[in-house]
Inverse folding.
């Protein structure tokens, strides 16, 4: 290579004026891998997590699209085929319940509600937890101590009892389910976010922002919260199955969604009552529910392994 | 470890911290149950107004709310939870005294099984990290964490009671046969959870320097694991077990309902649905006190198992 073809930096490097590594950096020859790319590669190597993610994707597609494709309605009662076992001949692939409703379409519709509750209630807990934790961590001092002491106190309260109590007090209604579950599920999120914020706020870029006169509120919104994304993502994937579980638990006790709506928990509860005569009414919703929880847990585990800076040895 | 001054001071501070927590709990639950529409004496056929008034006077429900609240606080100070509204002739203290031994037995045995098997499986998997056996057991453990107990319970009943006929499908008569299925239902997720926790922390501990030192000194592997690694690796398990034990021994609502067991768990939902104010308050408070007490125990165990954490810092 003739020296005339070299750029200025390279000439400097060849002449030994700066070291080649720095020259390469200045040129952009070395493509730096962002922490996100690193995490992504680690995640793809985790076969359990990838399989779980694929299954979950299929599950969501089936649950969302399925009810439109299937010819049965979820509350249509087929009097010719009550308590029918799974059968291809009469078109009820998963069988029917005691009043002739198609289990397949009910399982899918129930899945819509269960997943919806899972996502929405998690978002509620995410909003409360992230803002609470970020504010406590960022302001520190007395604010932090008072806010976290409150979390400690609430932590010692029996949660399930509160959710049950809220459902009994305010009646069974789906919006309330979102809020009730979300409102009692934000404590862990607040603690984790606070811990991260404590270390983030000492970073140079936050100091730089402060030196530029950016207001505290904007620093939290623009600089702190986006950097919490990794931790929050891991936590969200682990919260969704918890929330789905709480909802199905409530529905199982008869405190969750109301007829004609249904959720996996409600279907399992119905199925458990008829399991001796019609085990398929229990088995199908139970399998869908379990597979979903199983997949979410694996995805969460995989994300944690991929994003947890502690593991990056 | 001797009971020195630091520990006593620490305990006192912890116990003082319990007061605001309990006060908040009492206050929130007290007003929440009373906000709920309907009252404890609503029946299909409306009671004559005189009788309704008499009933309310008897249970002090005619007083202003604040007065009722302070009356209740006074009662709590002498550990009197008051009479149940729904179970006539029963006080809440008597109901708890009757239900708790049942829940304690089932939950306690389940927790014991969970601890023994969970720790065993977790250590075993950690020692064979990334082997086929490790992946298989951890796959099952994840399944155990994922399957809700209201799915496990009916399946167990179907298999062992309905099809095989070996065990009763429900009911409770203090015999081991009636305890097997509920205990197993409760223990499975605990085993799975503890196994996962234990495996993770054991792997971390086995990579630490003091284990390398112990091995370098030529200690037999058995001793390295049992004497050196096990203790620090147990810490996360211990902190999980505090609140989990409280939840288990106060009775699982689901398991008690499915197996028709007369424990504490069923009182809570029944109480809330019947607006049995005193019963709901009693059960919630009882549970709250247990959680707090067990958390204190966990913290103390922590300082014993891990001398690095001085109890001053707790």
């Amino acid at each position: 290579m003739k020296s005339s073809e070299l750029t200025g930096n390279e000439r400097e490097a060849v002449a030994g004026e700066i070291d080649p590594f720095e020259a390469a950096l200045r040129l952009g020859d070395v493509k730096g891998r962002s922490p996100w790319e690193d995490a992504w590669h680690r995640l793809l190597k985790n076969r359990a997590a990838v399989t779980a993610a694929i299954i979950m994707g299929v599950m969501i597609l089936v649950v969302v699209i399925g009810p439109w494709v299937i010819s049965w309605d979820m509350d249509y009662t087929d009097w010719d085929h009550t308590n029918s076992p799974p059968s291809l001949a009469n078109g009820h692939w998963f069988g029917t319940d005691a009043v002739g409703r198609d289990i397949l379409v009910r399982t899918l519709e129930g899945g819509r509600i269960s997943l919806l509750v899972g996502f929405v209630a998690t978002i509620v807990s995410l909003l409360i937890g992230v803002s609470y934790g970020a504010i406590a961590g960022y302001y520190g001092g007395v604010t932090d101590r008072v806010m976290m002491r409150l979390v400690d106190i609430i932590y010692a309260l029996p949660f399930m009892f509160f959710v049950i109590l809220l459902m009994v007090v305010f009646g069974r209604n789906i919006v309330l389910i979102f809020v009730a579950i979300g409102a009692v599920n934000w404590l862990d999120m607040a603690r984790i976010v606070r811990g991260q914020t404590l270390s983030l706020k000492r970073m140079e870029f936050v100091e730089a922002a402060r030196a530029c006169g950016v207001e505290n509120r904007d620093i939290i919104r623009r600089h702190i919260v986006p950097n919490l994304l990794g931790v929050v993502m891991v936590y969200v994937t682990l919260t969704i199955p918890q929330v789905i579980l709480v909802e199905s638990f409530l529905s199982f006790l008869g405190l969750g969604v109301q007829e004609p709506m249904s959720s996996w928990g409600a279907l399992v509860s119905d199925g458990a009552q008829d399991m001796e005569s019609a085990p398929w009414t229990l088995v199908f919703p139970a399998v869908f529910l379990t597979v979903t929880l199983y997949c979410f847990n694996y995805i969460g585990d995989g994300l944690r392994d991929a994003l947890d800076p502690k593991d990056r040895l | 470890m001797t009971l020195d001054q630091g520990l006593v001071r620490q305990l006192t501070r912890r116990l003082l911290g319990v007061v605001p927590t309990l006060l908040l709990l009492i206050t929130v639950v007290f007003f929440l149950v009373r906000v709920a529409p309907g009252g404890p004496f609503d029946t299909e056929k409306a009671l004559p107004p005189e009788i309704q008034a008499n009933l309310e006077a008897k249970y002090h429900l005619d007083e202003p709310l604040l007065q009722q609240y302070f009356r209740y606080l006074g009662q709590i100070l002498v550990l009197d939870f008051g009479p149940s509204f729904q179970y006539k002739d029963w006080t809440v203290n008597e109901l708890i005294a009757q239900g708790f031994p049942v829940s304690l037995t089932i939950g306690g045995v389940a927790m014991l099984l969970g601890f023994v098997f969970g720790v065993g499986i977790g250590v075993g998997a950690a020692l064979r990290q990334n082997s086929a056996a490790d992946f298989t057991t951890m796959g099952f453990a994840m399944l155990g964490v994922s399957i809700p107990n209201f799915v496990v319970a009916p399946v167990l009943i179907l298999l062992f009671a309905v099809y095989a006929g070996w065990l009763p499908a429900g009911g409770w008569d203090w015999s081991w046969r009636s305890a097997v299925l509920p205990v197993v239902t409760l223990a499975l997720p605990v085993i799975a959870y503890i196994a996962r926790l234990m495996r993770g922390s054991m792997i971390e501990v086995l990579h630490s320097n003091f284990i390398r030192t112990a091995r370098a000194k030529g200690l037999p592997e058995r001793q390295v694991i049992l004497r050196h690694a096990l203790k620090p690796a147990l810490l996360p398990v211990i902190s999980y077990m505090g609140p989990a034990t409280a939840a288990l021994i106060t009775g699982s609502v689901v398991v008690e309902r499915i197996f028709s067991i007369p424990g504490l768990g069923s009182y809570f939902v029944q109480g809330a649905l019947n607006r049995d104010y005193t019963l709901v308050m009693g059960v919630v408070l009882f549970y709250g006190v247990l959680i707090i007490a067990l958390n204190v125990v966990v913290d103390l165990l922590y300082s014993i198992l891990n001398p690095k954490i001085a109890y001053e810092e707790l």
Remarks:
- The mean pLDDT of chain A is 78.
